[in-house]
UniProtKB/TrEMBL annotation:
Residues 35-46 have a biased composition (Basic and acidic residues). Residues 35-55 are annotated as: Disordered. The keyword tRNA-binding does not apply. InterPro entries: SpoIIIAH, SpoIIIAH_sf. The chain crosses the membrane at residues 6-25. This is Stage III sporulation protein AH. Keywords: Membrane, Transmembrane, Transmembrane helix. The lineage of its organism: Bacteria, Bacillati, Bacillota, Bacilli, Bacillales. It comes from Evansella caseinilytica. The keyword Transmembrane helix applies. Pfam families: SpoIIIAH. Gene3D superfamilies: Stage III sporulation protein AH-like.
Length: 206
């Protein structure tokens, strides 16, 4: 009798083990399938999001807002025309303008330092001069960094000029597409946070 009970108990346990094994195998397969479907869905969603973002970027600017201009037409560039009138390439022109800009800002920083070191200036005025001095230095670093970033996108040369709340970006190119212009605008906004951006291109002079 005892042997029969043990046999029945053993068979019951074996049946239970078999059922549980099948259950866990099925659940494991279902979990894997669910994870694969979720991964595929996430990948598709990411791809869609990327396409949507690209389309959204293209729609940020109307065609009328895209600036395709010759660099000589810009007022602040025209001030330097006598300096680069004899240069033979766009890159040389950009270099001349950069040097002029650097000299101008160096003088501004000297003026700020003079205020900071003045014994007559109040603490408030000195603090304001110090902030302007540091902001001017930071701005120049960001301009140079953005120029390098834009050139890494395949442009032979780039010139960035930030004045007040306006950012002007010029690249050495024969032409610019809308997609290329928007890309430059987005890079510029991400780098400097200025919303009023004008993009122009300049080809080598004949």
């Amino acid at each position: 009798m005892v042997l029969k009970r043990q046999t029945v108990w053993l068979l019951t346990m074996l049946s239970l083990i078999i059922v549980l094994s099948v259950y866990y195998i099925s659940m494991d397969r279902m979990d894997k399938q669910a994870m694969e479907e979720e991964a595929e869905g996430h990948h598709g969603e990411t791809a869609d999001t990327g396409e949507d973002q690209e389309n959204q970027n293209l729609n940020l600017f109307d065609d009328d807002e895209l600036t395709y201009i010759e660099i000589e037409e810009i007022d602040d560039i025209d001030d330097f025309s006598s300096l680069y009138s004899g240069v033979d390439s766009v890159s040389e022109m950009f270099d001349v303008i950069r040097l002029q800009r650097q000299d101008s800002r160096s003088k501004m920083r000297e003026d700020y330092r003079a205020v900071i070191e003045s014994v007559e200036a109040t603490a408030e005025i000195k603090s304001e001069a110090f902030d302007k001095h540091e902001n001017l230095y930071t701005l120049q670093q960001k301009e140079e960094s953005l120029e390098t970033l834009i050139k890494s996108k395949g442009y032979e040369d780039a010139l960035v000029i930030a004045e007040d709340d306006t950012l002007k970006v010029y690249v050495k190119a024969d032409e610019l597409t809308k997609e290329e212009t928007v890309e430059i605008m987005m890079l510029s906004y991400d780098h400097l946070g200025i919303e009023d951006i004008r993009v122009g291109f300049q080809s080598d002079k004949n």
